[in-house]
Amino acid sequence: MEEVDPLNNLQNFNNIYANIAESSYNSRPKNFPLYSVNKKEKYLNFSENAISEKTGEIQVKAGKNLPNNGIAYLQPDLTLHDEPIKTTLTIPNPNGGYHNENYTTKSYQKGLLTDEKAGFNAYFVTDTPQLTTETKNTYLSIRGSDSYTNLGNVLNDWLANDANFALTNAYIPQAKLANQAIQQKVKDLQNQAPNAQLNITGHSLGTMISAQAVAKFYHDFPNSADRLGKVVLFDGPDVTQSLKNMGLSEEEMEKLGEKVTYYVNPFDLVSMLNRTESLDKQFGNVHVIVPRNFGTTFDTPSSHDFGAFQIQENGEFLVATKDFHPELLEAGNQLAHLLQETVSKLEKTVGVGLPVSVLVTALTNGINGLTALGFTTRKAKELIDAFTKEYGLIIKNTKTKTLKWDERHIPMYQQRIRSSSSAQKISLRSQLLQTVAQTAILQAEEYKNEITTMLNEEKEKVQQTIKETREAIYHMVQYLDAWEVEELLAEFTIRNLWDVGIEENTNKSVVEYFKQMEDFSIGLVNVSQHIQEVDKDGAIGFKNIMNLSWRN
């Protein structure tokens, strides 16, 4: 089984919703699709480390303080079957005339939780082996794109599978399938597990499907709404307009929104779709995370993947507020407006209104994606270059602001810790360690970029000097043949005037320094996520966790 780059995975299993949402994808540490064809429930334990089958190293660290001690059961879809695809052929009769014959040419997987043809996949997870009166929590995870590790395929699915949403903010086909699954699972709970609730989670495209499906259920079956628990969604767009188009009232959206929580990355294109309004005016409770890295959606690791989330030992995500890294809130708003402004440029060319999701899909496909919308190659390149430049500037400027915020607040945290109560101290120390870790990695990255840029600039200067000197000598020499001049200048080359060995050693040292600082930063983050354990064990606990981080 192919494994996803560890940097794209969750760093720990401290949040049950994130665990289940991630596991819905292929090639993840706890891989639901691998076991979904089983006819019996699959035992899962998120309080254990996920170990790579290839390297034997820890992929994701064991979860702490999880409900049901991290134990969960992936339930089989007993309705899953091969659905035949029939073709009708017109066959001539021996004695004249024709008749029709039906043939099964191929088949696809179909059931309550799977419709391969429609691209729909969902997974039902429980906290007991079977539904009984002992069952307290169940989870329905709606999977996003089938090929999440290829972001191009992810965003293509927005149009290929869900064109109705992309073009008209309509109730999409996959959401209708998810709604049927929710209805059936709620009936199952009423009949078999009367004390249980159905929680919903999903990522990316799965958030849009989940939100619409839950909204439709809430609208049609208000008396069963108490069966719905939490709806926790990751890296998805705002669906407010689509819910209005589906007929939900403002009162219904506000009431349902109390159950819904979004965690979005301020540097992710998909997270920032349709989010130009203030967070309090968007559907659900929207939280902008403090990401582990400042990459784009298209980088590896991607800002759209699970590796960007920082989860504390208590299962809470590190999120930005007006008092804690407010520059990230600003960055998300800037990216949302950049997407909307770029759409306006698109609309002037194609002459029709377009949703932001069309832009994201087009950008993913590069120049070809924009020429398909009517752009010339030159215009497509201009738009992509302009967008990429602005996108990069948002991240670059936010990095600078984040570093300044960290440097300004580290002494403030130290002062507050001295005067705070014991309970407050734990939380403040955790935030302080997170801030120091972030400062270390940002400063190291800045140093690495400065040294690399300096080397490249100096090398270019030497190359330019060599070129100008050679040209000047050729203009001055009148009585020598070209071969004689070349012989005189044979030693005047970049190979002889630039020490490649020093360049390579410098680059190697910079990379090693950055890796050490990255390891140190990861260690501090791990300590902050186990701050209660460290608080109990003191310096020994701190040292043990730091050493463990460096080994893994």
How far apart the termini lie comes to 22 Å
Mean model confidence by pLDDT: 81
For the CA atoms, what is the radius of gyration? 28 Å
Strand content range: 5-15%
Highest CATH level, the class of the domain at 6-77 and 117-145 and 169-266 and 303-319: Alpha Beta
Unreliable runs: 148-156, 158-167, 537-543, 548-552
Give the biggest beta sheet.
9 strands, mixed
CATH fold-level topology of the domain at 6-77 and 117-145 and 169-266 and 303-319 = Rossmann fold
Shape: globular
Number of β-strand runs: 13
Helix content: 40-55%
The helix/strand series, from N terminus to C terminus, equals: HHEEEEEEEEEHHHEHEHHEEHHHHHHHHH
Q: From the coordinates shown, what is the CATH architecture of the domain at 6-77 and 117-145 and 169-266 and 303-319?
A: 3-Layer(aba) Sandwich
The helix count comes to: 17
Pairing-aware structural class of the strands and helices? alpha/beta
Topology record:
Blueprint: H1 16-23, H2 32-35, E1 42-45, E2 50-51, E3 58-60, E4 71-75, E5 81-92, E6 98-110, E7 114-115, E8 120-126, E9 137-142, H3 151-160, H4 163-168, H5 173-192, E10 197-203, H6 205-220, E11 228-234, H7 240-245, H8 250-257, E12 260-264, E13 285-288, H9 326-350, H10 356-364, H11 366-371, H12 377-419, H13 422-476, H14 482-488, H15 494-497, H16 500-529, H17 531-551
Parallel strand pairs: 9-10, 10-11, 11-12, 12-13
Antiparallel strand pairs: 1-4, 2-3, 4-8, 5-6, 7-8, 8-9
